[in-house]
Design a protein that fits this description.
alpha+beta
Length: about 400
């Protein structure tokens, strides 16, 4: 080999080594920077190793954001719904304050997902529509919701999740769903949270009509025979015309007792509580849970709501007679894993709970612990024949 060729080869090898070294430094630097989020905000330790992600918002942070927003809403005399998603779009934490209806609840999630898709406040899309109404069609085709109230949760330039708030009438600059979320993020994350996006005046209706708008309200709030702490009452019950809808306080207690019970068993759980209409009341995902854990918890709650039975009944029936039960579960979109229980208090169904993820000692057992602690002797629970006592409920 000629000396010139040897020199060129050595130079190329040296360049390759330097390039690989530089790439390694960049990769390491990028990894270090990506993981440069204080542990109090993100899933860490064994839970993060399990999901292979050290940059996703943890339950504690999501819960603090929701609590702060609800506290601000209470001070304003309004109710809100709030949804926190992780950076993969999974549900992490959700609350529906008493008196919130379907539109309030669903828009909270739509705003959160819009913020996640754009890595930016959902108000930016709303402002674009105000300036140019023709862009909204494309936004809808992309699944985006052009309304304010969705905000990214960013720590040290790392997106760890998003929050969406819905349900309250805007009164900027004093109050809006977005202001609620921003106040909560500032309280929990700190002063690094970017300032609010500018509010543009609403677009004028080009074709105003004079059609009369009817009022639909009742002078008499709906009545219930259940203890007041278990159900939505007063003005909240009047808003939704339902006196037997599980209260947020009761739903939270079910979940928190179940959460603590799962942790005491060395496990984790995803928990959904829905009302009689199937709308979310409360949801939380403990650290280390993956999509399947989260999704199955929701399916269990929805199945127990539709069937008015614990999902463990269909689970046992499937094992005892696979020929008939499979047909029913598919046609009626049921999910037969145990862990879903209707919430029946003093003979009245007020919602349903679904637990997924194993929960350390069984998903159904976890739900039962939450129900017993919340409602005591008022609640109806699944009972097993004496011959099956040793096996007991399973997750």
């Amino acid at each position: 080999m000629k000396l010139r060729d040897v020199g060129l080869t050595l130079a190329l090898r040296a360049g390759l080594v330097l390039g690989l070294a530089a790439a390694a430094v960049i990769a390491l630097g990028g990894a270090a920077f990506a993981q440069n989020v204080p542990e109090q905000f993100v899933v860490s330790g064994k839970a993060a190793e399990k999901i292979q992600d050290f940059t996703t918002i943890n339950l504690a942070t999501a819960e603090r954001i929701a609590d702060a927003c609800e506290k601000a809403a209470t001070a304003q005399g309004v109710q809100i719904s709030i949804m926190v998603l992780d950076n993969d779009g999974n549900h992490v934490y959700m609350d529906r304050m008493d008196g919130q209806g379907y539109l309030n609840i669903i828009t909270a999630e739509m705003k959160a997902r819009t913020a996640l898709m754009n890595r930016a406040p959902s108000k930016l899309l709303m402002n674009r529509v105000i300036q140019d109404p023709t862009v909204e069609l494309q936004q809808m085709q992309l699944g985006e919701f052009a309304n304010s109230g969705g905000l990214p949760v960013v720590v040290n330039k790392q997106l760890i999740g998003v929050v969406g708030v819905g349900g309250s009438a805007p009164r900027p600059p004093v109050w809006s769903d977005e202001i609620c979320g921003h106040k909560a993020l500032t309280e929990v994350i700190g002063p690094s949270v970017p300032p609010l996006v500018e509010d543009l005046p609403p677009r004028q209706n080009a074709n105003p009509g004079n059609a009369p708008v009817p009022r639909f309200a009742t002078a008499n709030p709906p009545k219930t025979t259940l203890p007041a702490e278990f159900v939505v009452g007063g003005k909240g019950a009047g808003n939704v015309f339902d006196g037997n809808q599980i209260s947020l306080a009761a739903a939270k207690k079910i979940a928190r007792v179940c959460r603590d019970w799962a942790a005491s068993k060395g496990g984790a759980a995803s928990i959904y509580v829905v009302d009689n209409a199937g709308e979310f009341v409360h949801m939380e995902r403990m650290d280390g849970q993956i999509y399947n854990n989260i999704r199955t918890a929701l399916l269990k709650a929805q199945t127990s709501l539709k069937t008015r039975q614990p999902t463990s009944i269909a689970n046992a029936q499937l094992k005892n007679n696979a020929a008939g039960t499979a047909r029913q579960t598919v046609y009626f979109n049921l999910f037969t894993n145990s862990g879903g229980i209707p919430i029946v208090v003093d003979g009245q169904m007020i919602g349903a709970v679904g637990v997924g993820g194993g929960a350390g000692g069984g998903d159904e057992n976890c739900a039962i612990e939450g129900l017993k602690a919340t409602f005591g002797d008022h609640v109806t629970l699944p009972t097993y024949p004496a011959a099956s006592t040793q096996a007991g409920p399973r997750g």
